[in-house]
Amino acid sequence: MSNTRGAKARAAKAAAAPAHDHASHAHDHDHECDEACGHDHSHDHEPGHVHGFPDARGIYLISPSSAVRDPQTVEVARERLAAQGFKTALDRTALAEHQRFAGTDAQRLASLTRAAKQKLPIVMVTRGGYGMGRLLHAIDWKAMADSGKRFVGMSDFTAFNLALLAQTGAVSYTGATAIYDFGGKKVDDLTEALFGEVMRGELEILSFETQDADPVDCRGILWGGNLAMLTSLAGTPYMPKVRGGILFLEDVAEHPYRIERMLIQLWQAGILGKQKAIVLGRFSDYKLAPHDKGYDLHEVVAWLRKTVKVPVVTGLPYGHVATKATLPIGQKVGIATEKGLAHLVLDEHHH
């Protein structure tokens, strides 16, 4: 794949930097602060003095899964997104609470409907957590696809990404979320840059360091996300039937044996063997035990390579980590490896 050189050299070079795990954080398939704040920050944020961004760039924030624990983190995220040139609007139930959820199932479903009808082009989740699976059967998928919105989230939102692809073939995005990536004490420069470039359609190639990658040079539909969420959809109408795809995976706080068990299910279900490549992101925040006796994530990858006759590429900057790319699920892409580097080519736009 000769066109994997040159484009977006700054982002490509930076993307090779290692991601940092956040082992000290509590997890619920995402991380966030727990400090309480009783204020409702629901006003719109206008973009700051950033030049070169079209006026139409805007983000509508929703909470379709777990409740926001600290509304101030959403406010911080909105300020940072405004500084990057994005106007933001907060859905009226984004800060709602019902048990562990951001509102009742009906409220969260209604927020998705509003998101599809409002005018801002990007819809971003505040956080992941748990709850999207409850809504899949009730979502009007055609309306979601016909809206033309760029839906962005990760973790629990993987269920939405994959269901949208399975039901309509529409592209959506996984990567940055408001609280985790923009609402903390600092923002990872690369995560911020890659989010902006992908949303503006500017990122053509994402290059990253990879160790012992299998040789691969192919094109296919990019799909995947959180391993636990993807595995939970197997056998349902919301699992995409992708043949010849490029499947990428990440997870958090899952011991390597649990990761392997999910991979075994996907392999035995015939899903892994149909792909052209399997790309592994970060598997973070797990603890090995003395009785593992050398069994670790490297052993899982070795098992995967031996068992599934599909090229495996590691090192994708994606997961429950500070440095992550925002990626298009459902878009045709290319991937090639050479000399310790992998190049993910995003220059084919099949929206």
UniProtKB/TrEMBL annotation:
Keywords: Carboxypeptidase, Hydrolase, Protease, Serine protease. Residues 1-47 are annotated as: Disordered. GO terms for biological process: proteolysis. One of its GO terms (molecular function) is serine-type peptidase activity. The active site is at residues 155, 250, 320. Residues 59-175 form the LD-carboxypeptidase N-terminal domain. Residues 219-333 form the LD-carboxypeptidase C-terminal domain. Residues 19-47 have a biased composition (Basic and acidic residues). Belongs to the peptidase S66 family. PANTHER family: MURAMOYLTETRAPEPTIDE CARBOXYPEPTIDASE, MUREIN TETRAPEPTIDE CARBOXYPEPTIDASE. This is Murein tetrapeptide carboxypeptidase. It comes from Achromobacter dolens.
